[in-house]
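The data layer described in this paper is built around a simple, fixed record for each protein. Because each token names a local backbone shape, the row as a whole describes the fold. We quote a single record here, exactly as it is kept in our systems:

***
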Amino acid sequence: MTRFIRQLALGATCVALSTGIAGAWSLEEAAKPYKGTQISVIFLDRPGYHAIEKMLPDFEKKTGIKVNYEWVPYESTLEKEVRDFSSNGDLTIALVDLVWIGTFADSDYIVPIDDLKKQFPNIFDPNYDMSDFFPLLLNAFGTWNGVVYGPPFDNYSGLLFYNKKMLKDAGYDKPPETWDDLKAYAAKLTKEGKYGYALQSRRGETQSCDSFMRFIWPWGGSLLDAKFKSNLTSPESQAGLNFRQDLIKYMPPGIVDFDHAEAVNALAQGQVAMITEWSAFYSTLVDPKSSKIVDGLGVAPEPKGPAGRKPALGGFCLAVAKQANDNQKAASWLFIQWATSKETAKEYVEKGGVSGRQSVYKDPELIKKYPFIPPMVESWQQGVPEFRPRFAEWPQLSEIVAEVGTNMMIGNVSVKQGSDEIGKRVEDVLSKAGYYDGKKKLAQ
């Protein structure tokens, strides 16, 4: 009995010690060896980055780590990062769009999280909990061929934002449920210099993803079929792309020059009644400094198409750059871990960001305050399609879709002609990359 009591006491002591050690981890202590280290990252001029900028003084005060950031337009970010990483530049953190992850991983620009954990075990918060991220987001944004490189950051789901007063004045007491409904609403709302709908469509990733792809999936179409051959001439894809052409008459002139800022501003200033945009722009639309419709803003899921509700999916991860020195790698991970932690998630959301953590959206206070949360979470839980295929070659494919997709919208080519051209050029890229002879496979 005495031996049993001694063993029990020893076991209790071990548990207490292990609990104490785990509970003793703190950002301040973990960062002490890296005080004075400078790290560098690119920020986009979007709400989530302005939110983290506001929070940065707290991180820098606690850690003594200096975070240098540069504001770069989205369309220039990939080129700037690739140039920096390929020339051993200054960036210590990679901002990785979900369609860039293959390029960055295959080029050995970024470090897997498991490798960091082996090299720097003391900087990993035992309560960080990677399983708390939405699985869809963690897989889409930060994982390549089963290897996790970074946690989700600045995450998006496509939503319908609308002017409640304009819809009510037109006789509508609820937002459109389907794309056909939206077109009918838009026809009635387009009058007296106002427009029913705006679709961000500027040439580049905005055209290829936010405009072109948005009108394929809900109709049951896709860019490629199961064998990576073009699927754009299928009846479903053609129906969606022709629908987009029909909808243009209810959009502002020069819509092919609208990026996110222009579409959001058109709704915020009362120039258009509806937009389908990323969830991240909610904070812009309810900011009295930039929006005239703060009290009249409505939020709903993206409309359903013939194949159901398939809203756009977008976002980024943050990953540690391979070119960083050891101190910078450790300091960069401490920043990434802090920026995407459970502890900072609520403040991040309240300052305008969109967290990828499941737990923060169980907060009744946030759900009540931010009406974009329920439809966004629903889309992430349902597993919406990754709008863009995650080929390492996507940047090349994107430019093809953007170029020809723009020509479709302005009428330089028909939908059928444009679809044929995109299909031929995309297949040529994939053939040269080795997808058709079995030398290369799509990453999982």
